[in-house]
Amino acid sequence: MFTKTRAYDKLLKLDKRIRGVAGGTSASKTISILLWLIDYCQTHDNEVVSVVSETFPHLKRGAMRDFLNIMETHGYFRSKDWNKSDSVYQFGSTILEFFSVKEYSEKVKGARRDILFINEANNIPFESFNQLEVRTKKLIWLDWNPVSEFWFYTDVLNNPKMDVDFITLTYKDNEALDKNIVKSLEARKDNKQWWRVYGLGLLGEVEGRIYTDWAIVDEVTHNARLWRYGLDFGYTNDPTAIVAIYEYDGGYILDEICYQKGMSNKEIADLLKNHKKALVIADSSEPKSIDEIKSYGITMIPSRKGKDSVNNGIQYVQQQRISMTKNSLNLIKEYRNYLWMEDRDGKIINEPNDILNHAMDAIRYAIANGRKVEWKPNNPGGVKQYFENIPA
After folding, report:
1. Domain 215-389 adopts which CATH fold?
2. Model pTM score
3. What is the fold of 6-199?
4. What distance, in Å, lies between the first and last C-alpha atoms of the chain?
5. Rounded-to-integer distance, Cα 194 and Cα 183, Å
6. How many helices and strands (H and E) does the chain possess?
7. CA–CA distance, 180 with 253 (Å, rounded to integer)
8. For a designed S-S bond to 248, which of 100, 224, 276, 317 qualifies (C-beta 3.0 to 4.6 A apart)?
9. pLDDT of residue 147
10. Using the 8-state DSSP alphabet, how is residue 303 labeled?
11. How high does pLDDT run on average in the chain?
C-alpha cells in the first residue's frame, strides 16, 4: 500500500495557487502529490488534470509508473478507463492526462486544464511553465530535487504577482520508507554536496561554481563600515551592476545597489549620490564613462587589468569571508550560477564563463583590484597610492 505520510500531511496545509515542493531522495514528493491528485479526481466532476514532465520517457519511468502502481495497489485501476495510447485515465467525467513539453508542445500552448502537476520542474524551460500556468484555471503543483537554482527560485517564489507556497521535504517526512533505505541514505552523510541536496533537501552547489560558502544575511549589520562600491558597466544587453562593499568582523558584507539595463552615466551618478559617499572602483574598459561620472562629483577610479588579473582576483575574493544581504536577488543569482568554463570533453578549465558575471565582476573590481587603496573623503592621495602600489 502507498501510505499517506507526513509528507502528504504537509502538502494538505498548502493553500496557494502555485505549490512548490522541493526535497531530497525518498522524500515521497511525487507519490504524495499523485495521491492528492487521485483523491481530487475521484471527488470532482468535469475537470481536467494534467501531469507534465520534460520528456515522455521520463514520464513513463517516473510519474506515470508511480500513478499506475498506486491505482493498482489500492484497487482503483480499471483497464477500460485507461487509454494507453493517449496516456489518459478517465475518472468518470474527470480526466487525468500525461504529456511532455518536448513531444507535445501543442498541448503546452493549447488546451486548458483545472489542475497542473509539473514533475521535476527544474528540467522544464521557464517559457513552458509560463504557457502552462496561464492555461491552468485552479492550482499548480511543482516538485524537484534542489540540485541547483532555477526559475522557481529566481522568477516565481518572490514574485508579488504570483500566489506561491513553498516547502522542503526530506526522507524523514516519509515514515513508510524501508529502514535499509534510511541506512543507505545516512551512510552518505560524508559526501557533503550529495547529502545537502538528496539527504537534507537543500539547494545545492552547482558543479564548477567559482565561488562557494558565501552566507546570506538579513541585512547589513549596524556596525559594519561602508568601504567602497564596485561597478560594472552595462547598457543595452547587459545590466549596470553596482555593489556596496561593507567591512565587518574581518570579512565583507555585500549589498546590491543597482542591477539595471539602459542607465546613462548621469543616472549612474545620480544613483550613487543618493547613497552614502565612498570610493567607487569601476570597470577600466570604459574610461570615457568613468571621466563623465567623475565630472558629476563622484569619486571613481578604474580597476587595474593585466595578465592573470581575473583569475588572481577571483582567487583573492574567494579567500575572503563574504556575506550577501537577502534582498540582493541578482547578486545571489549570479553567485549561484557563476561557473568555470568546460572544454569539449566536459572538463572544467580555469576560465570563468562570460555570463551571469556582472555583479561578480563589480565585486572583484572592488575587493581584489582595489585592495591597496585606503581612500577617505577629501583625501585624494588614496587614488595616487592605488596606481603606485598595484602592479599592472
Report:
1. Nucleotidyltransferase; domain 5 (3.30.420)
2. 0.63
3. Rossmann fold (3.40.50)
4. 69
5. 15
6. 15, 17
7. 44
8. 224
9. 86
10. P
11. 89
Q: Are 156 and 162 in contact (CB under 8 A)?
A: yes
Cβ burial of 134 (10 Å; 0-12, 13-18, 19+) is exposed
Q: Which ranges of 252-302 would DSSP assign to H, the alpha helix?
A: 265-273, 287-295
Confidence (pLDDT) at 388: 35
Nearest to residue 44, comparing CAs of 10, 83, 91? 91
| Residue owning grid cell 500513478 | 67
What would the mean pLDDT of 29-35 be, rounded to a whole number?
Answer: 97
Coil/strand/helix, residue 250: coil
Q: Which comes out higher in pLDDT, residue 303 or 355?
A: 303
pLDDT at position 104: 64
Where along the chain do the CATH 3.40.50.300 domains lie?
6-199
Which part of the chain has CATH 3.30.420.280?
215-389
Could you please report the per-residue DSSP string of 168-226?
A: EE-GGG-TTS-HHHHHHHHTTTTSHHHIIIIIT-PPPPPTTBS----EEESS--TT-EE
State which amino acid sits at residue 234.
G
Helix (H/G/I), strand (E/B), else coil: 362: helix
67-71: list long-range contacts, CB under 8 Å, 24+ apart.
67/34, 67/38, 67/96, 67/98, 69/2, 70/2, 70/31, 70/34, 70/35, 70/38, 71/38
* Per-residue pLDDT, 151: 94
